[in-house]
Records
---
Amino acid sequence: MPLLNILQFPDPRLKNIAAPVEHFDAELATLIDNMLETMYETRGIGLASIQVNVPKRVIVIDASDNENEPRHFVNPEIIAKRGVIEWEEGCLSFPGVYAKIKRAKEIDVKYVDKHGKPQELLNATGLLGVCIQHEIDHLDGITFYDHLSSLKKELLRKKLDKIRRRSL
Ligand code: NI
C-alpha cells in the first residue's frame, strides 16, 4: 500500500477543516489502512486525515507500547471532558519538536467505525486521551502549535528551523 505524504508545518492546508464522512465504502477503508501504515512507518502514534491532505473526519491512533493496537475513529466527537493534564506532545507535521500542552485529563468520545457503526470510547486517559484530543484538533485545522503562547510559538519555530537546516 502506498505511504501518504504528510503535510509539514506551516503548510496552509493544515488549517483546512475536515467534513464529516458520509460514505462508508472501500475508499474509506483504504484511506484508513494507508493512514495507519504511514503512521507506523513514520514512528507516529496518531495521524489525522488533514495531515495527508484528505479533508474528511478520520483519525488513526496507536497509543500502545508495542504498536499492536491500531484504532480508527471516523467523525469523532468529544462528548465529555474531565480534569486537566499537561502533556509533552509532538506531531508528524512538526518532526523533532515537542511542547507541553494542557488537555482534558479524561474524555468520552463518540464516533463511527469504518462500517458506519456507532461506537463510544469512555474514560480515555493518559497518552490515548491526549492523542485523541490532538488528532481531533487537526480535523478542525488546529495544531498543537496553536495552543502555545506567542513566545513559545517563536521558540518552537526556531527549533524547527534549526532541525530542518541540519537535515538539508
Ligand atoms: Ni499532530
Note: Strands lie at 46-48, 58-61, 71-89, 99-112, 118-125.
---
Amino acid sequence: MTAKLLILPGDGIGPEIVREAEKVLVALRDRHGLDVVWEHGLIGGAAYDAHGEPLPAVTLEKARAADAVLFGAIGGPQYDTLPKDKRPERGLLGIRAAMGFYANLRPAILYPQLANASSLKPELVAGLDILIVRELTGGIYFGKRESRVVDGHQVGHEVIPQARVASDVEQYSDYEIARIAHTAFKAAQLRNKKLCSVDKANVLESSQLWREVVCEVAADYPDVELSHLYVDNAAMQLVRAPKQFDVIVTANLFGDILSDIAAQLTGSIGMLPSASMNEKGQGLFEPIHGSAPDIAGKGVANPLATILSLAMLLRYSLKRGDLAEKIEAAVQTVLAGGLRTGDIAAKGEATVGTVAMGDAVVAALD
Ligand code: IPM
Ligand code: MG
C-alpha cells in the first residue's frame, strides 16, 4: 500500500531543514523503492499568516488522512505579541491533542564523532544512549487554565485586597498513565530493560497516582527493571551520571524539561529527532530543537535532526526499519567524513551549510 505523508515545514529554519529531509525522501522513493506520496501543509506562524489560525482545519484534515506527519519547527519573535490562542505553539499543541499523539519518544544519543560537543566530560557521556518517553497529551499542558482577579486573596497570613491569580491544573487519569507506561515498558524491552519513572510523588497527588499505576503496569513486564526518581533528583542524576539511565518515562511538563537537559548532554540539539505516536500508529516526527529565528534563512541550520526524524517516521509509522537504518548509517558516514554544520563543529573546524549537509546524506545513502 502506498504510504501517505504530510509535511509541515512551519516557521524559522523549519522550511530549510525540512527541504533537506524531503530530498532524502525523494531518494528513498526513486532509488530504494519506497512506495510513498506526500503533500504539504501550513502550521504555526506560517499558517497564521495565511489563514489567521495556527492550526487551520485543512491542515488537520490532511493530518488525519496521512500515515505520518513530518514536522519542522514553529514560532518566531514576530508572533510573540499575538493572543495566546493564535500563537504558533498552539498549532503544535493543537495537532498533538487533536490527533491523540500521546506518546512522545525522545532519544538522546551521543554520536561518537561528536564526543567533544557535550558540556560534560567525555567519559561521563561517551556511549550515551537514553530514551525519554514523555506523556504528551495530558497533565498541566492540557489541564484547566484560569486567569482571574480575586478580592481578598490570602497569601500565608496576609490578605491582599485585590490580586490577579492564574492557575493551570496538573491532572492525570489512571488510563493515561497506564497507556504511556505500557509504551515505555515496551520500549525498554527492546533496549536494556531498565525503566526509570520520574515524578514528584513526595508532593503531588497526581504523581502519587502516577507511581501507583506505573507499579501496577510493571507486573506485565517482569523482565524490565523498574526504578523511581523524584524529578529534582532525576535532573541532577542526568547531569551527574547520565549513563545510569536507559528509558525514562514521565509526565508532560517534566518530560519537556528533562528532554532539554538530555539533549544538551549530547551537545548537539541539532542532531536529535523525536516521534509522537497515537493509538492508531500514526505519528508526528520532528527535530527536538526549535525554529531558531536568529539563523533562519541563512542556510546554516543543521538538517540532521529532521533527517533523523524521517528515519523514525519510517521505523515507527511505516514499519520500514530497514530504510530507517539506511538513513542513520548515512548520517554516521557523513559525520565520520568530517562534515559539520556550525552547531556541531569544534572550535576552528570548517563548517558546511544546510544544503551541503543534506546533499551529503543523500549521497551517502547508497
Ligand atoms: C517541545 C516544545 C513544546 C512543548 C513547545 C513549543 C510548546 O518545547 O516540543 O518540547 O513545550 O511541548
Ligand atoms: Mg520543549
Note: The chain has a mean pLDDT of 96.
